[in-house]
Amino acid sequence: MTVRVVLALTLALAIFDASAQDLSNICHAASSYDVTVNDSNVVFDRPQPAPRQVVMHDGTLSTDGRTVALRPDEEDRVALFERNLRALVPKVKAIASDGIDLAARAVRDEAATAAPDAVRSGELDRVLAQRVTEIKRRIAASRSTRDWQEEAMREYANEIVSDVAPILTNDVGTQAMNLAMNGDLEGAAALRDRVSALTSGGQDRIVGQLEARLRPRVQALCPSIRQLAELQTGLHNASGQPLNLVDIEGR
């Protein structure tokens, strides 16, 4: 397995775990909706079933384009739901942004065992930092959970790999050629072992580090998630059905 493939696998999984941390497993919470937080409103949407779109704005509620009549206490709950959801956004973004840093640093440390010259030269750090900065900028500008799905995270990972892999591949290739030309069979074998260690254990090590560092921060969000579920209790859509934006296991 090449260095490029190794990095693609490890970084894709690491970034996805860092950004999402699977709230369904940690907080036992899930939603069938994507959420977009705009300046003027919060929009929940999904392909099926109805209601396919739920919009909240300053204590008002509409589902699939129809305004929902609310009592004053229900208006207060809708407004509080929106406010609390908005308060969660920077916290989630902070976890994802820090996760990108941790994942990239961990992959850099793992890769350095196979390509130490790339680290010593500073080229690996320069290229990696540039790409990570761009991804973090996109995280900061994000407004929708669509930007946090697995496909998007893997795209981010592939962008990093496309920049970093050539540097590592060139370093490993140069080392192997020099060792072979000098007849250093033991050195060549050691190089193969380092690459093999990155292939076989790097992913588990990286994910383990991320889970240990980020899981407590995700767990700290669980009470806020549960509060959102409580605030929606008793609210209905325009057809009179219970509003079900957040599902909590066991409720």
Helix content: 55-70%
* Strand composition percent: 5-15%
Which parts are unreliable, with pLDDT below 50 for 5 consecutive residues or more?
A: 1-21
The H/E string reads: HHEEEEEEHHHHHHE
Structural class: alpha+beta
Distance between the termini: 46 Å
How are the strands of the largest sheet arranged? 2-3-4-5-6
Number of strands: 7
Number of separate structural domains: 1
Largest sheet: 5 strands, antiparallel
What is the arithmetic mean of pLDDT?
78
Q: Which outline best applies?
A: elongated
Q: Helix tally? A: 8
What's the layout of helices and strands?
Blueprint: H1 3-20, H2 23-26, E1 29-30, E2 34-37, E3 42-45, E4 53-57, E5 60-63, E6 66-67, H3 72-112, H4 116-120, H5 123-141, H6 150-181, H7 185-219, H8 222-232, E7 247-248
Antiparallel strand pairs: 1-7, 2-3, 3-4, 4-5, 5-6
Name the descriptors.
five-stranded antiparallel sheet, alpha+beta, 8 helices, DUF2884 family protein, DUF2884, disordered N terminus, 251 residues, 66% helix
Protein architecture, described:
The protein has about 250 residues and is α+β, with helices and mostly antiparallel strands. It has one domain (about 5-240). It is about 65% helix and about 10% strand. The chain is built from eight helices and seven strands; from the N terminus they run ααββββββααααααβ. The strands form two sheets. A five-stranded antiparallel sheet has the order 2-3-4-5-6. A hairpin with a 4-residue loop joins β2 and β3. α3 packs antiparallel against α8 and α6 packs antiparallel against α7. The longest helix is centred in the middle third of the chain and has 41 residues, at about 70-110. It is elongated and about 80 Å long. The two termini are about 45 Å apart.
